[in-house]
Protein backbone atom coordinates (compact mmCIF):
# COMPACT_ATOMS: atom_id res chain seq x y z
CA UNK A 1 0.00 0.00 0.00
CA UNK A 2 1.26 3.51 -0.83
CA UNK A 3 1.89 6.04 1.92
CA UNK A 4 -0.75 8.56 0.92
CA UNK A 5 -3.41 10.53 2.79
CA UNK A 6 -5.16 7.41 4.07
CA UNK A 7 -8.85 6.61 3.88
CA UNK A 8 -11.63 9.04 4.74
CA UNK A 9 -12.42 7.04 7.87
CA UNK A 10 -8.87 7.76 9.09
CA UNK A 11 -9.71 11.46 9.53
CA UNK A 12 -9.99 12.02 13.27
CA UNK A 13 -9.22 8.35 13.99
CA UNK A 14 -6.17 8.98 16.20
CA UNK A 15 -8.14 11.12 18.66
CA UNK A 16 -11.14 8.78 18.49
CA UNK A 17 -9.01 5.71 19.25
CA UNK A 18 -7.43 7.37 22.28
CA UNK A 19 -10.90 8.23 23.63
CA UNK A 20 -12.62 4.93 22.82
CA UNK A 21 -10.18 2.04 22.24
CA UNK A 22 -9.97 -0.43 25.15
CA UNK A 23 -12.75 1.41 27.02
CA UNK A 24 -15.66 -0.91 27.87
CA UNK A 25 -19.28 0.23 28.33
CA UNK A 26 -20.49 -2.96 30.05
CA UNK A 27 -19.31 -5.69 32.43
CA UNK A 28 -17.07 -7.74 30.17
CA UNK A 29 -14.36 -10.39 30.34
CA UNK A 30 -12.47 -11.47 27.26
CA UNK A 31 -9.49 -13.69 26.50
CA UNK A 32 -7.50 -13.56 23.27
CA UNK A 33 -4.85 -15.98 22.07
CA UNK A 34 -2.71 -16.02 18.95
CA UNK A 35 -0.69 -18.87 17.50
CA UNK A 36 2.52 -18.72 15.49
CA UNK A 37 0.59 -19.80 12.40
CA UNK A 38 -1.41 -16.56 12.47
CA UNK A 39 -4.68 -17.85 13.96
CA UNK A 40 -6.16 -15.62 16.70
CA UNK A 41 -9.06 -16.69 18.92
CA UNK A 42 -11.08 -14.36 21.16
CA UNK A 43 -13.74 -15.40 23.68
CA UNK A 44 -15.93 -12.74 25.30
CA UNK A 45 -18.55 -12.81 28.04
CA UNK A 46 -20.53 -9.64 28.78
CA UNK A 47 -23.40 -8.48 30.95
CA UNK A 48 -25.39 -5.37 30.15
CA UNK A 49 -28.78 -4.35 31.54
CA UNK A 50 -29.16 -7.64 33.42
CA UNK A 51 -28.67 -9.64 30.22
CA UNK A 52 -25.67 -11.91 29.72
CA UNK A 53 -24.19 -12.60 26.34
CA UNK A 54 -21.01 -13.85 24.78
CA UNK A 55 -19.28 -14.48 21.50
CA UNK A 56 -16.36 -16.31 20.00
CA UNK A 57 -14.24 -14.77 17.25
CA UNK A 58 -11.46 -16.25 15.16
CA UNK A 59 -9.04 -14.38 12.92
CA UNK A 60 -6.56 -15.71 10.42
CA UNK A 61 -4.00 -13.80 8.38
CA UNK A 62 -1.88 -15.30 5.63
CA UNK A 63 0.12 -13.14 3.23
CA UNK A 64 -2.42 -10.76 1.62
CA UNK A 65 -5.53 -12.46 3.01
CA UNK A 66 -7.34 -11.80 6.29
CA UNK A 67 -10.37 -13.71 7.61
CA UNK A 68 -12.46 -12.81 10.67
CA UNK A 69 -15.40 -14.98 11.82
CA UNK A 70 -17.56 -14.22 14.87
CA UNK A 71 -20.38 -16.28 16.44
CA UNK A 72 -22.52 -15.01 19.34
CA UNK A 73 -24.84 -16.76 21.82
CA UNK A 74 -27.87 -16.10 19.58
CA UNK A 75 -26.27 -18.07 16.70
CA UNK A 76 -25.62 -14.94 14.66
CA UNK A 77 -22.60 -15.39 12.42
CA UNK A 78 -20.59 -12.61 10.83
CA UNK A 79 -17.59 -13.03 8.58
CA UNK A 80 -15.11 -10.62 7.02
CA UNK A 81 -12.81 -11.58 4.15
CA UNK A 82 -10.17 -9.06 3.09
CA UNK A 83 -7.74 -9.57 0.23
CA UNK A 84 -5.02 -7.07 -0.67
CA UNK A 85 -3.55 -6.31 -4.09
CA UNK A 86 -6.02 -8.14 -6.32
CA UNK A 87 -5.51 -4.90 -8.19
CA UNK A 88 -2.16 -3.26 -7.30
CA UNK A 89 -2.43 -0.83 -4.34
CA UNK A 90 -5.93 -2.01 -3.47
CA UNK A 91 -7.87 -3.94 -0.86
CA UNK A 92 -11.13 -5.83 -1.39
CA UNK A 93 -13.35 -6.57 1.62
CA UNK A 94 -16.44 -8.78 1.75
CA UNK A 95 -18.70 -8.70 4.84
CA UNK A 96 -21.27 -11.46 5.27
CA UNK A 97 -23.82 -12.10 8.02
CA UNK A 98 -26.14 -15.00 8.85
CA UNK A 99 -29.12 -15.11 9.12
CA UNK A 100 -29.34 -11.40 8.20
CA UNK A 101 -28.03 -11.76 4.67
CA UNK A 102 -29.15 -8.29 3.55
CA UNK A 103 -26.69 -6.55 5.87
CA UNK A 104 -23.68 -7.88 3.95
CA UNK A 105 -21.61 -5.65 1.68
CA UNK A 106 -18.69 -5.66 -0.74
CA UNK A 107 -16.09 -2.89 -0.48
CA UNK A 108 -13.19 -1.87 -2.69
CA UNK A 109 -10.38 0.42 -1.50
CA UNK A 110 -7.73 1.98 -3.73
CA UNK A 111 -4.61 3.78 -2.48
CA UNK A 112 -2.51 6.36 -4.33
CA UNK A 113 0.39 8.55 -3.06
CA UNK A 114 -1.94 11.58 -3.17
CA UNK A 115 -5.42 10.07 -3.02
CA UNK A 116 -7.54 7.20 -1.78
CA UNK A 117 -10.91 5.94 -2.97
CA UNK A 118 -13.44 3.57 -1.44
CA UNK A 119 -16.66 2.19 -2.90
CA UNK A 120 -19.04 -0.13 -1.05
CA UNK A 121 -22.26 -1.76 -2.21
CA UNK A 122 -24.78 -3.71 -0.16
CA UNK A 123 -25.47 -7.36 -1.01
CA UNK A 124 -29.26 -7.18 -1.32
CA UNK A 125 -31.96 -6.54 -3.93
CA UNK A 126 -31.90 -2.75 -3.44
CA UNK A 127 -28.28 -2.17 -2.44
CA UNK A 128 -27.15 1.12 -0.90
CA UNK A 129 -23.93 2.54 -2.34
CA UNK A 130 -21.27 4.37 -0.30
CA UNK A 131 -18.39 6.26 -1.91
CA UNK A 132 -15.56 8.24 -0.31
CA UNK A 133 -12.59 10.17 -1.70
CA UNK A 134 -9.58 11.58 0.14
CA UNK A 135 -6.95 13.89 -1.39
CA UNK A 136 -3.66 15.14 0.00
CA UNK A 137 -0.56 13.83 1.72
CA UNK A 138 0.22 12.10 5.03
CA UNK A 139 0.59 15.64 6.49
CA UNK A 140 -2.53 17.31 5.08
CA UNK A 141 -5.67 15.64 3.75
CA UNK A 142 -9.27 16.51 2.95
CA UNK A 143 -12.05 14.21 1.90
CA UNK A 144 -15.74 13.57 1.49
CA UNK A 145 -18.12 10.64 1.83
CA UNK A 146 -21.60 10.08 0.40
CA UNK A 147 -24.26 7.39 0.65
CA UNK A 148 -26.82 6.75 -2.11
CA UNK A 149 -30.03 4.77 -1.72
CA UNK A 150 -30.97 3.01 -4.95
CA UNK A 151 -34.64 2.48 -4.01
CA UNK A 152 -35.42 6.18 -3.51
CA UNK A 153 -32.66 7.61 -5.67
CA UNK A 154 -31.61 9.99 -2.89
CA UNK A 155 -28.46 10.76 -1.00
CA UNK A 156 -28.94 9.38 2.51
CA UNK A 157 -25.71 10.85 3.92
CA UNK A 158 -22.82 13.11 3.05
CA UNK A 159 -19.84 14.00 5.18
CA UNK A 160 -16.72 16.11 4.69
CA UNK A 161 -13.51 16.30 6.70
CA UNK A 162 -10.05 17.81 6.88
CA UNK A 163 -7.00 16.82 8.91
CA UNK A 164 -3.52 18.19 9.59
CA UNK A 165 -0.92 15.77 10.94
CA UNK A 166 2.47 16.63 12.40
CA UNK A 167 5.03 14.34 14.08
CA UNK A 168 3.77 15.30 17.56
CA UNK A 169 0.12 16.28 16.93
CA UNK A 170 -2.96 15.83 14.78
CA UNK A 171 -6.01 18.09 14.33
CA UNK A 172 -9.21 17.16 12.48
CA UNK A 173 -12.56 18.73 11.60
CA UNK A 174 -15.50 16.62 10.37
CA UNK A 175 -18.84 17.99 9.13
CA UNK A 176 -21.39 15.17 9.15
CA UNK A 177 -25.07 14.21 9.38
CA UNK A 178 -25.79 16.17 6.19
CA UNK A 179 -24.20 19.27 7.70
CA UNK A 180 -26.05 19.01 11.01
CA UNK A 181 -23.06 17.94 13.12
CA UNK A 182 -19.53 19.26 13.40
CA UNK A 183 -16.77 17.48 15.31
CA UNK A 184 -13.37 18.98 16.10
CA UNK A 185 -10.58 16.92 17.66
CA UNK A 186 -6.95 17.49 18.59
CA UNK A 187 -4.32 15.12 19.94
CA UNK A 188 -0.84 16.06 21.10
CA UNK A 189 1.89 13.53 21.86
CA UNK A 190 4.24 14.30 24.74
CA UNK A 191 6.94 11.67 24.10
CA UNK A 192 8.65 10.13 21.10
CA UNK A 193 7.02 6.72 21.59
CA UNK A 194 3.56 8.36 21.56
CA UNK A 195 2.53 6.58 24.76
CA UNK A 196 1.90 9.81 26.65
CA UNK A 197 -0.61 12.13 25.01
CA UNK A 198 -3.41 14.63 25.61
CA UNK A 199 -6.59 14.74 23.54
CA UNK A 200 -9.71 16.86 23.28
CA UNK A 201 -12.85 16.47 21.18
CA UNK A 202 -15.92 18.67 20.86
CA UNK A 203 -19.05 17.78 18.90
CA UNK A 204 -22.01 20.07 18.22
CA UNK A 205 -25.40 19.13 16.77
CA UNK A 206 -26.93 22.25 15.23
CA UNK A 207 -30.55 21.06 15.12
CA UNK A 208 -30.67 20.49 18.89
CA UNK A 209 -27.90 22.88 20.03
CA UNK A 210 -26.35 19.92 21.86
CA UNK A 211 -22.65 20.00 22.67
CA UNK A 212 -20.50 17.10 23.81
CA UNK A 213 -17.00 17.90 25.01
CA UNK A 214 -14.53 15.18 25.96
CA UNK A 215 -10.99 15.47 27.26
CA UNK A 216 -8.61 12.63 27.96
CA UNK A 217 -5.11 11.34 27.69
CA UNK A 218 -2.69 8.52 28.16
CA UNK A 219 0.38 8.17 30.34
CA UNK A 220 3.14 5.60 30.01
CA UNK A 221 3.86 4.74 33.63
CA UNK A 222 6.75 2.57 32.48
CA UNK A 223 7.67 0.52 29.44
CA UNK A 224 5.12 -2.16 30.40
CA UNK A 225 2.21 -0.19 31.87
CA UNK A 226 -0.13 2.33 30.25
CA UNK A 227 -2.85 4.40 31.93
CA UNK A 228 -5.66 6.15 30.01
CA UNK A 229 -8.46 8.38 31.28
CA UNK A 230 -11.29 10.45 29.79
CA UNK A 231 -14.07 12.74 31.04
CA UNK A 232 -16.95 14.36 29.17
CA UNK A 233 -19.26 17.25 30.02
CA UNK A 234 -22.01 14.79 31.02
CA UNK A 235 -19.87 13.64 33.93
CA UNK A 236 -18.90 10.24 32.54
CA UNK A 237 -15.43 9.26 33.70
CA UNK A 238 -13.55 6.33 32.16
CA UNK A 239 -10.19 4.77 32.95
CA UNK A 240 -8.06 2.03 31.42
CA UNK A 241 -5.02 0.32 32.92
CA UNK A 242 -3.04 -1.89 30.55
CA UNK A 243 -0.03 -3.98 31.58
CA UNK A 244 2.23 -6.28 29.56
CA UNK A 245 2.57 -9.26 31.91
CA UNK A 246 4.86 -11.18 29.56
CA UNK A 247 6.21 -10.11 26.15
CA UNK A 248 3.32 -9.38 23.74
CA UNK A 249 0.69 -10.50 26.30
CA UNK A 250 -1.53 -7.76 27.75
CA UNK A 251 -3.96 -7.51 30.65
CA UNK A 252 -6.42 -4.64 30.30
CA UNK A 253 -8.70 -3.42 33.10
CA UNK A 254 -11.34 -0.83 32.23
CA UNK A 255 -13.88 1.03 34.34
CA UNK A 256 -16.53 3.67 33.71
CA UNK A 257 -18.88 5.49 36.06
CA UNK A 258 -21.13 8.54 36.21
CA UNK A 259 -19.72 11.23 38.50
CA UNK A 260 -23.19 12.78 38.74
CA UNK A 261 -24.68 9.57 40.13
CA UNK A 262 -22.08 8.06 42.42
CA UNK A 263 -24.67 5.70 43.92
CA UNK A 264 -24.74 3.72 40.68
CA UNK A 265 -22.51 0.68 40.32
CA UNK A 266 -19.48 1.40 38.12
CA UNK A 267 -18.99 -0.78 35.05
CA UNK A 268 -15.85 -2.90 34.86
CA UNK A 269 -14.21 -4.91 32.11
CA UNK A 270 -11.20 -7.20 31.99
CA UNK A 271 -9.46 -8.56 28.92
CA UNK A 272 -6.45 -10.82 28.48
CA UNK A 273 -4.55 -11.02 25.19
CA UNK A 274 -1.99 -13.80 24.87
CA UNK A 275 0.52 -14.03 22.06
CA UNK A 276 3.42 -16.44 21.55
TrEMBL record:
Keywords: Ion transport, Membrane, Porin, Transmembrane, Transmembrane beta strand, Transport. InterPro entries: Porin_dom_sf, Porin_Euk, Porin_Euk/Tom40. It is found in: Membrane. The keyword Cell inner membrane does not apply. GO terms for cellular component: mitochondrial outer membrane; pore complex. Transmembrane segments: none annotated. It comes from the Eukaryota. Pfam families: Porin_3. GO terms for molecular function: porin activity; voltage-gated monoatomic anion channel activity. Forms a channel through the cell membrane that allows diffusion of small hydrophilic molecules. The channel adopts an open conformation at low or zero membrane potential and a closed conformation at potentials above 30-40 mV. The open state has a weak anion selectivity whereas the closed state is cation-selective. Belongs to the eukaryotic mitochondrial porin (TC 1.B.8.1) family. This is Voltage-dependent anion-selective channel protein. It comes from Sesamum indicum. The gene is LOC105158591.
Amino acid sequence: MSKGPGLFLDIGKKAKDLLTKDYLSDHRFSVSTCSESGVALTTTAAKKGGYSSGDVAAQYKYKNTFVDVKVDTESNISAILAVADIVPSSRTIATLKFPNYESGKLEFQYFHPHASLTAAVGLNQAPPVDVSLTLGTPTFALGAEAGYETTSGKLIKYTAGITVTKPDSCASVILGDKGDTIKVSYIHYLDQLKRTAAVGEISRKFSTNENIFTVGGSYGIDSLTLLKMKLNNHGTLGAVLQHEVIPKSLVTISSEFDTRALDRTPRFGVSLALKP
